[in-house]
Design brief:
elongated, single chain, 10 helices
Length: 181
């Protein structure tokens, strides 16, 4: 990697730590004048564009990053999330599935698929993905909450409320578990 490109990436990451996205982006854009083949530059520009809600630009940068490094999970995951926000469900599903192929236990990928299938009212498929997330991480906040809401829709009220209460931090006291002394 060119030393100037590396230096610019390091400087941009300092700005990112300070949440100064504009200066981070400006420095990374200088890298494109040097080379348009640096994966990390495109990945970071895609992430910054996503944070700044410039979804089309984020998608373009992330697609280029993936072209340069097709096995970088966070690039694919970020692209799937951006495409989900853009309502490009088929592309988003395909990219979430690529993430799962690279890492079968990727919680964000599994949860992303669950949410898309729930939105499309494919509840059985959504439930399968939520269960996979909760098998890996039983206290996953988003999966517990979303799966709880899904179960309410499916008239499985007791289990649905239990999951929602779990993430809400509500503790239900029952006679048999109250200790006074």
């Amino acid at each position: 990697m060119d030393s100037k490109i590396k230096s610019n990436i390091d400087k941009s990451q300092e700005f990112l730590r300070k949440k100064d996205f504009n200066n981070a982006e400006l420095i990374l854009l200088k890298n494109l004048e040097i080379s348009n083949e640096n994966f990390e530059t495109f990945f970071l520009l895609g992430a910054i564009s996503g944070i700044k809600k410039n979804l089309q630009k984020a998608e373009t940068y992330l697609q280029k990053a993936i072209t340069l490094n097709s096995s970088h999970i966070n690039s694919i995951l970020n692209l799937a999330i951006i495409q989900k926000k853009m309502n490009k469900k088929i592309d988003s599903i395909n990219n979430f599935e690529k993430v799962i192929k690279l890492d079968k236990d990727n919680l964000e990928g599994l949860c992303g698929l669950a949410q898309i299938f729930e939105e499309d009212e494919k509840f059985t498929i959504a439930e399968t993905y939520y269960k996979k997330v909760l098998k890996i991480e039983p206290n996953h906040h988003i999966a517990n909450h979303s799966y709880g809401k899904l179960l309410l829709k499916l008239n499985q009220h007791a289990k649905g409320l239990e999951l929602i209460e779990k993430v809400s931090g509500i503790i239900r006291f029952q006679k048999d578990n109250m200790h006074i002394k």
